[in-house]
Amino acid sequence: MSDFRLEVFYTVARRLSFTKAAAALFITQPAVTKHINELEQQYDNKLFERKGNKIQLTAAGELLLSHTEALFDVYRNIDFDMNALVHKKEGILYLGASTTVSQYIIAPILAGFRKKFKAIEIRLINGNTEQIERALLEKEIQLGIIEGRSKHQEISYTEFIRDEIVLVCGKDHPLARKSELSKESILESSFVMREQGSGTLEVIDYALKEIGMRVADLKVEIQLGSTESIKSYLMHSHCLAFISVHALTDELQRGTLRIIDVAGLNIERYFYFIQLHGKPDGLSEVFLRHAQLAHNLK
């Protein structure tokens, strides 16, 4: 329903690259340039300007982007509402999931959703919590599922699944047979941690403060960008790590990783759905309701 030239403009504006926009839209770079030139002629304004090897939006480009985002939101809601009149649910849902969610939680939910709503296409992006929140604020996605909870005023947070983060080590670690660790033992140990911006790291830091510690007090040997790489590192080192129990099912069954209790430390959290405040779009609500029902039926 939307003007394809606006879709081209939106894609360039989000990626700030004619080459990446062409690849995303499956058209040639000269075709992208042609559509942008036509828009600039139509509005008698430059939409992009070059800064060395990069491009950036002009003031006119920023204004057009704002209107384009609002227009695309309206188009999506029109499509959903009109299809709902004939009991059809179809369209494209842009969904974001933070690292732990995308690796261990969302796959069966997506599979069940696609079986039930074959006409709804899902385009999923992954990243840490900070990146998914940014994608929502920049309207690259309509709905996100994150670990941890920030305090963005523009974002609405809805509880989804309860999670527990536990202290873990490899089966050959000297502390693997300990039933409980003291605060002092933790401070003497080496850790492998997630990268900055991780929702897990945010939650861990908050919980440690409750027992008079901080993440900054820990001896961090290395920071890694995924839970899978952290688990593998634990199996080949004498480090400890804080990991979601959702990510440990296979390793605990095989006995390759062990959970260690920490005196006075309990790290619980929720995974959250995130949406921008205001009227939620129809596709997001359909997916949210499906995910909640699928989890409750487990």
From TrEMBL:
* Presence of keyword DNA-binding: yes
Annotated HTH lysR-type domain ranges read 1-58
One example of the protein's molecular function in GO is: transcription cis-regulatory region binding
Task: Show the PROSITE patterns listed in the entry.
Answer: HTH_LYSR (PS50931)
Signal peptide range in chain numbering: none
User: Mind telling me which Pfam families this protein's record contains?
Assistant: HTH_1, LysR_substrate
Superkingdom in the source lineage = Bacteria
Q: Kindly state which keywords UniProt assigns to this record, in alphabetical order.
A: DNA-binding, Transcription, Transcription regulation
Q: Where are the transmembrane segments?
A: none
Q: Which family does it belong to?
A: Belongs to the LysR transcriptional regulatory family.
Q: What is this protein called?
A: Transcriptional regulator
Organism, as annotated: Pedobacter lusitanus
